[in-house]
Structures are given as C-alpha cells and as structure tokens.
Write a structure and sequence with these properties.
globular, 8 helices, 9 strands, alpha+beta, ATP-Sase_PUA-like_dom
Length: 224
C-alpha cells in the first residue's frame, strides 16, 4: 500500500502546484424556461418545470376546506376502517396526485392489471405505467362490520377521521401472488413484505377516495 501511495504521489494529476485563479469565477445560471406556442397548444409536457402526470391530469383528492366539517360529520356515521402508518402514507401519495390517474385505493381490475402488466389501461384506451399496487387491506372482522355499505370512513391510529372511501369494492387479497409478481420471488426476508402484506388482512378494499384534509407529519417539512 505504501509503494502504491508513492507511485500515485509522483503522477502529474496529483501535483502540488498551485491552482490558477480564474479571471471570471462567477458562473451565471438562468432559471427561466420558455416553451413554443406549439407545445402550449398541445397542452404542454411540462407545468412549471414538472413533467405532466400520467393520464394528462393531476388527480388531487383533498376535500376543499369549506366542505371538510360536513365530510367529517359524514365519516362519523360510516363503517370504520383503521389505517396503519403504511396505509396512511399511501393515502398521502394518492391525495396529492403522486399516483395519478388513480382516484383512490385500487379496485380489483386495477390491482390485477398492475400485477400482471405493470400498467393501467384508462377509459380512453391509453396505457400508463403502474408497477406497484396501491391497495388497502382489511381483515375478516372489518369486512363483516362493513356489510353491505358502499362507503367507509378511514381513521388514523389516533382515532381521527382522515378520509372517506366511496363506491367500494371488496375482493380477496392474493398475498403470495402479490409478493411473487412484485418482487419476482417469495423468499423470506423481503423488504416491506411482512409488515405490509403477510401480516395484513385477507381482503382488499378499493374505491373513490376523499381525503378530509392535507396529510401532516409535524416533522418540520409539512410547509413544503
């Protein structure tokens, strides 16, 4: 090792010669971006520097502030599903449009398309990437409590209503297939699997999501 260091110390690119000072050290950057009228007519691929969401429209699911109190009263009368911290994080993803064009937790047809094709076919025939199922698991007791209701309220671990799921569909949770098709193996020790899938309920519930207010973590980053 010492001989290697001696060789490297004699190479030209490690010379101890002083650096030449630049006569113009400032490097101006421009933050402006312009688009042709043609691209604007097409709807534009960008909005404020961001790539347009899949499906062409950002699907935001947070209820407008004037209606939040009314929606919370509605939630109090509905069958209740309690969310895990992981469920709440996926709800956050859906609420702010990061999973556009999804309008809620996946129903069975969306779930199966994601598992088998890593994509979703939209109503207009177009196809968008969707390689990870965004689903909500419930157990037998919760399923029985829901009964014939077509709407449920979602609650956080502190007992606060956070969302309403409407026009719901409940279907079997194929855990082994989900693991195999998502990770390409069912070997033990896979990340996320035990907490979010293996120990989750035997049923999945999908539907249209209304989030009652923006998700906050009180971690100092909520304002961004």
């Amino acid at each position: 090792m010492a001989s290697m260091a001696a060789v490297l110390s004699k190479t030209p690119f490690l010379s101890s010669q002083p650096l030449t000072k630049s006569p113009n050290p400032d490097f101006p950057l421009t933050a402006s971006v312009s688009f042709s009228s043609k691209s604007r007519r097409r709807g534009g691929a960008f909005r404020a520097g961001l790539i347009a969401p899949d499906g062409g429209k950002l699907v935001e699911l947070v209820v407008a502030e004037p209606r939040r109190r009314e929606k919370k009263h509605e939630a109090a009368k509905l069958p209740r599903v309690e969310l895990t911290p992981i469920d709440l994080q996926w709800m956050h993803v859906l609420s702010e449009g990061w999973a556009s064009p999804l309008g809620g937790f996946m129903r069975e047809s969306e779930f199966l398309q994601t598992l088998h094709f890593n994509s979703l076919r939209l109503d207009d025939g177009s196809v968008v990437n969707m390689s990870v199922p965004i689903v909500l698991a419930i157990d037998d007791e919760q399923k029985a409590r829901i009964g014939e209701s077509k709407r449920v309220a979602l609650f956080d671990s502190d007992g606060n209503p956070v969302a309403i799921l409407s026009d719901i569909e409940i279907y079997k949770h194929p855990k082994e297939e989900r693991i195999a098709r998502t990770w390409g193996t069912t070997a033990p020790g896979l990340p996320y699997v035990e907490e979010a899938i293996t120990n989750a309920g035997n049923w999945l519930i999908g539907g249209d999501l209304e989030v009652l207010e923006p998700v906050k973590y009180n971690d100092g980053l909520d304002r961004f």
